[in-house]
Amino acid sequence: MSDSDHRLLRETGIAFLLMLTIAVVVAVLYVAVTGLSPWPYVIIAEIGAMGWGTAMLALCSPARGG
Q: What's the whole-model pTM score?
């Protein structure tokens, strides 16, 4: 694998961790504000958002520009 492939994998991993952190924060805030379980509505919506968000963050990262 070339160096650019390794950068893309690293950026994808970082983007996934960021999206996972956001998902956990949203779920915890949902429980704190509403007192209701975030399953299934919030969690299922976050799964789809995590895929799109990870792709957008990894492919649009500043390190890809050069």
A: 0.78
- Cis omega before residue 40 (within 30°)? yes
Query: Pseudo-torsion of CA 6, 10, 15, 16, nearest 10°?
Result: 100
**Quick count: other Cβ atoms within 10 Å of Cβ 21?**
10
Q: What is the pLDDT of residues 31-53, one digit of tens each?
A: 999 999 999 988 899 888 988 98
SS3 47: helix
Residue in 12, 21, 14, 3 with CA at minimum distance from that of residue 59: 12
Residue type at 42 in one-letter notation: V
In angstroms, rounded to a whole number, what is the distance separating the alpha carbons of residues 27 and 37? 9
